[in-house]
Amino acid sequence: MAEKHYLTGKEIRKIAKENKKAMMALEKEKWKKKPESEFLTTMKDENNILEIDNLNTYFFTDQGVVKAVNGVSFNIPLHKTVGIVGESGCGKSVTSMSVMRLLQGPQGQIASGEIRFKASDYKRDAKGNPIATGTDENGNPIYETEEKIYDIAKMPMNEIHRIRGRQISMIFQEPMTSLNPVFTIGNQLDEVTFIHQPGATKESAKAKSLEMLNLVGIAAPERVYNSYPHELSGGMRQRVMISMALACDPRLIIADEPTTALDVTIQAQILELLRDLKEKMDGSIMLITHDLGVIAEMADYVVVMYAGRVIEMGTVREIFHNPMHPYTIGLQKSKPTMQSDSDTLFNIPGNVPNPINMPKHCFFKERCDKCIKKCGGEYPQMIKISDTHFVACHLYEEGENE
Ligand SMILES: Nc1ncnc2c1ncn2[C@@H]1O[C@H](COP(=O)(O)OP(=O)(O)OP(=O)(O)O)[C@@H](O)[C@H]1O
Ligand code: SF4
Ligand SMILES: [Mg+2]
Q: What does the alpha-carbon distance between residue 402 and residue 392 come to, in Å, rounded to a whole number?
């Protein structure tokens, strides 16, 4: 029998009604004020800066619920770079937007899961206000900091400023859309300092901005400081974005396709800059890209995503020298060569299942050339191959001799 590809008016109305109820409940929870104790937690492993644990992020659409991130778990260790790779639409950006709590509500919502982050924040009183321990020579209050583990997924929106753009900052693919065209670079950089450094003066903010522009390799910082975004080249704008992301000494930088919009030589320069800065700031990087070459050069660990799930993860060595999931193996084969444009998309035949109606079985089944009988049954569990290497595929379960 032919499959039905449309919804009737009645079905759409039913979905809309159900969506509204679910969205509103999640939206209300998001804005509810709560004491810090309700979003404090503990890390499973002290060596991590971020632990994403069974994260589910959904979009409530008129066609149904899109499970863009569907039970994702992975860690980012302290001082390490973790590369997230997977083809278009697999949920890389939605994962990062969940960590930053930048999802567009009410449609986009974290439905469940934990995002544990090791933050350094002010000591606070019962009302959540920072406790001043004295004043500096200019009469500005001095605040003491301490280490706290926040569950970002449970943080109310009015507290997100504690981490967003301060402890965690983000570099986007297209800097032109993130920079404001009507203000100079200087205005926008100074603003970051004003927001995050209480007591900053006009002079101290400018000094910090010029220092940051210098740090990201801009040879004429004063000229760039006085320029508008459209007066700069793409590579220069990306350097400015990186300097903005660094202005508040973040512990974690999320870079979502930071070089995709740039030409090849500039790409290499920006990657070099990111590597150099990671050493200097001693932080961690979550690097999202569909380019395996970038991962090989930059990352310590790799997380491979497919249709909203993590299907394999390991050290960069494990993923490149011993890929196990048929999808990861396919990615390696479809990797662009040195001669071709590194922006080439993956080319594994077949399509991802409809995100609204995911099957019960392995999501890669329809494209997999190694399918066994079991693959038509339950979705495969994550199997531990080594302390760092995990794969979700029936081929590696006990009793299956591949
Ligand atoms: N606002 C939205 N409404 C409905 N669905 C959305 C929305 N934003 C994202 N999605 C869906 O969520 C899924 C994951 O999208 P995401 O942007 O995370 O992909 P990605 O891995 O970053 O892809 P790309 O490499 O193209 O950037 C996709 O199926 C996408 O269609
Ligand atoms: S579980 Fe089966 S269908 Fe899925 S990737 Fe492994 S072999 Fe292929
Ligand atoms: Mg994306």
A: 14
Rounded to an integer, what distance in angstroms lies between the CA atom of residue 114 and that of residue 56?
A: 9
Pairing of strands 301-306, 81-85: parallel
pLDDT at 343: 47
pLDDT tens-digit map of 148-161: 999 999 999 999 98
Q: Is residue 59 part of a domain?
A: yes
Residue of 329, 378, 394, 401 to test ligand 2 pocket, by largest number of atoms within 8 Å of CB: 394
Establish if 110 belongs to a structural domain.
yes
Ligand 2 center–CA 21 separation, angstroms:
36
257 CA to middle of ligand 3, Å?
7
Give me the residues of the chain with pLDDT under 50, please.
Answer: 1, 338-345, 402
Ligand 2 atom at shortest distance from the alpha carbon of 363: 4
Any atom of ligand 2 within 6 Å of the Cβ of 323: no
CA–centroid distance, 128 to ligand 3, in Å, is 34
Nearest ligand atom owner, CA of 86: 1
**Per-residue confidence (pLDDT) for residue 202, from 0 to 100:** 92
- Predicted pLDDT of residue 302: 98
Question: Quick check: 251 and 118 in contact, CB under 8 A?
Answer: yes
**Do the domain assignments include residue 366?**
no
Say which CATH number the domain at 44 has: 3.40.50.300
Does residue 81 belong to any structural domain of this protein?
yes
Tens-digit pLDDT profile for residues 223-281: 999 999 999 998 899 889 988 888 878 899 999 998 887 788 888 888 888 888 888 88
Question: Domain tally for the chain?
Answer: 1
Structure tokens at 157: 């929106």
C-alpha to C-alpha distance for 277 and 321, rounded to whole angstroms: 28
Mean pLDDT for all residues in the chain: 89
- Global confidence as pTM: 0.91
68 C-beta closer than 6 A to ligand 1: yes
| Domain ranges, residue 38 | 9-167+250-351
Q: What are phi and psi of 155, to 5 degrees?
A: -65, 130
